[in-house]
Amino acid sequence: MVKIDNLTLKYADKLAIRQLSLSIASGEKVAIIGPSGSGKSTLLSHLYSLLKERAAFCSQKQGLVDGLSTYHNVYMGALSRHHWTYNLINLIVPFSTPLAEVEALCHQLSLDVPMSKVLSKLSGGQRQRVALARALYQQQATFIGDEPFSALDPLMAEQLLTMVLAGHSTCIIALHDKSGALRHFDRILGLRNGELCLDVTQDALTPELIDNFYSPETLALVSNA
Amino acid sequence: MPKSISFVGHWQKVTLILWAIALVCFLFSDTEIISLDPWSELQRMIQGLMTPDFFATEYLLEALWQTISFALLGVLGGLIWGAPLALLYSNRFIAAGCAVIRSIHEIFWALIFLQIFGLSPLTGILAIALPYGATFARVFFDILLQSPQSTVETLPARTDRVSRYFYGKISHVMVPILAYIRYRFECALRSSAVLGFIGMPTLGFYLETAFRQGHYHEGAALLILFIALIGSITFWCRPRLIIIYLVLALFTLPSMHSIDASLVWRFLSQDILPPALQGVTDLSQLDLSRINELINWGKSVFFEQAIPGMLVTLLLALSALAMSHLVSVTLSAFAFKRLTGKFFSVVIRLLLLILRSIPEYIFAFIFMLLLGPSMLPAMLALALHNGALIAFLTIKQSDNVVNSSVYNGRIDGYCYDVLPKIYPNLMGLLFYRFEVILRETAIFGMLGVATLGFYIDSGFSEIRYSTALLLMACTALLNILVDMISRQLLRQNTQTALACR
Question: Which residues of B touch A61 (CB under 8 A)?
């Protein structure tokens, strides 16, 4: 589905990705791990720019609009499906069909706030779920997520992760931790200083491999499955 | 000694330089008090203030309503032409055009329109709508620039441009834009009242009459009403009611007598031309003597009126700037609850409301009755009004300052713990206000202070429109120049976002 060959990217004048080659097939569920600043976000936004037409992106920046309601923030995932006149009227008077859809979606995400509640009044965890709901509401086959569950408790994070994985044929998700969440993925990529240091399938994944990846001494040890 | 110099920080230096410049300006200004007996006049004014007479003015309600309706229609007009321009403001020519329109004070626009439309409501509304629209264009453009990019980036790929713009950009800035319109409406109420001084049927007209005739009971009542009107905006100016007000405003406008097209044409084609060019119907009549006459006219206006006018304008504005600084620093400290206590700070806040509600022009008018015609009344008026406004905006910030555990609730605690946090923003606001002070300075000319406005006003009253227009162009240039310099300085020194322009 997507193939990167010898990619080097800069972020804020710093080398974020160094000579990285990677290919992801359609239908794969890929997790990307790595410490902060390892280049995960840069890689993900690059992947999104390649897959733009058929992927939904849940960015770490969220891009939420504080002055709009919860409903409108989620609805923004559907902007491309409707004519602009429809979108503008909806901005003033919400249409009942999308309103019901969004409400159901939020309920699924245990986001039980009034749809008219202004976003600035939501908590950090709620905001993150609004951003997630917006990405889900794009109803694309591919989901790209940049730590979309980082502000949630582990139980809910796992619950939502299963939901996201079930709803999309292809998933590329960056995760900050080495928790049990990884077992839901087919393939695990490890980024470190902008280089791909780990690329294993689920069956080849062992706790030692992960520990090794995160420990500083093994920086040079590149394990390619 | 050298050791302590290294502790003089950036803002201390800026403050000292500001004060040094202002002191020099003050020494060169005419600040003599020429009044035979200011105290008895003051006494009579205070007496009037103590016993305001609300029933002395005929047509009082009508004057109030006309003040509101001119302001409403003016702001609406400004929005209609200014808001769309915000989208094109990155174009250099549009930005320059707006800067010129903005730099000329409402009252001068009114003087021009007065020649064309006479005392028609159109004069008042256009005089507000024109400069306000230009301001809206620039401010909306600035606000839109600050709208975060991240939302647009996360929108679905095939979203159309209109939806992208409204959901990704406009929705972010709706709150500050509405707040700004509300603030400008307050300004428009002041402008509208001041237009009364040149004969529009608003509060200013009755105020001027009452004060000039020494009817202080009546004048005080009008002033109190005006302050109450501005202080209570949040109560009577509800979003839902605005539409009703607008319709009412349109229907209750004073009758517009028909505009005489030939007069308008005469004004545009003959009256505004320099004397040398009047009567010239085709280019062949332009001979050397006429061109010489034209050059001499330009020279004499420029050297005898524009240059002295500009000097006085700058002297006045710079002195007033430093005085505003003093007023704003003092009053914002007095209004700080954790320093002066609840009761006192509330009293000061009320004072701030009163001071910022009254237009500078009216202040200057009152001070001039007391202190006689010099630059001092104008300086005091500018300092009180602008200082109070800056203090008002500053205490919004200082109220939210979190004190450290060592804060002791005394003036030393304030200087250590609060002042350093609010000072950069205060100075930013102050320098921003300089542009406004400069614009306002010009209108004190109408009261006899020899600023550029004085020469413009004389030009109009002596029906030498060409002179007035040339001087207005000089005013515009001066304002734009100062604006450019101050923006440059601000960009170098502060990164604070300036609220309320």
Answer: 150, 153-154
- The per-residue pLDDT for A75 is 92
3-state secondary structure B401-451: CCCCCCCCCCHHHHHHHCHHHHHHHHHHHHHHHHHHHHHHHHHHHHHCCCC
- In angstroms, the Cα distances linking A89 to A20, A29, A95, B59 are 45, 38, 8, 44
Within 8 A of A65 by CB-CB distance, chain B residues are 151, 167, 171-172
Q: Quick one: average pLDDT of A125-129?
A: 94
**Tokens 């040398």 belong to which residue?**
B276
CA distance readout (Å), B188 to B74, B75, B194, B334: 7, 7, 10, 29
Q: All domains of chain A, ordered by start, with CATH?
A: 2-224 (3.40.50.300)
Residue bearing tokens 């502000």: A151
> Residue A178 has what pLDDT?
60
**Residue B14, SS3 per DSSP:** helix
SS3 category, A101 = helix
> Would you state the pLDDT for residue A154?
86
Question: In this model, does residue B33 exceed pLDDT 80?
Answer: no
Domains and CATH numbers, chain B: 11-51+293-501 (1.10.3720.10), 58-271 (1.10.3720.10)
Average pLDDT, chain A: 86
pLDDT of B327 strictly over 80? yes
Cα torsion through B486, B487, B493, B497, rounded to 10: 130
Give a three-class secondary structure readout of B241-280.
Answer: HHHHHHHHHHHCCCCCCCCCHHHHHHHHHHHCCCHHHCCC
Instruction: Give CA separation, A198 vs A28, A147, A212, A221, B158, in Å.
Output: 16, 18, 10, 10, 34
Highest mean pLDDT (candidates A168-177, B33-42, B366-375): A168-177
B175 at the A interface (CB within 8 A)? yes
Nearest to B446 by CA among B386, B385, B359: B359
B150, B159, B172 member nearest A79 (Cβ): B159
Mean pLDDT check: name the lowest of A5-19, A171-185, B191-205, B254-268. Answer: B254-268
Give the whole-angstrom CA distance, residue B219 versus residue B375.
23
Measure A109 CA to nearest chain B CA, in Å: 20
CA distance A23 to chain B (A): 22
Q: Is the pLDDT of residue B20 over 90?
A: yes
Residue A189 main-chain phi, psi, to 5 deg: -110, 140
Distance, in Å, from the CA atom of B409 to the CA atom of B407, rounded to the nearest integer, reads 6
User: Which residue in B399, B442, B440, B441 sits closest to B418, CA to CA?
Assistant: B399
Q: Check whether B1 has a pLDDT greater than 70.
A: no
Strands A187-192 and A195-201, by their bridges, are antiparallel
ipTM over 0.90: no
| Model pLDDT, residue B406 | 67
- Structure-model confidence comparison of residues B484 and B25, the more confident one: B25
B179 shares contact with chain A (CB less than 8 Å): no
- The answer for residues whose C-beta is within 8 angstroms of residue B58's C-beta and 6 or more apart is none
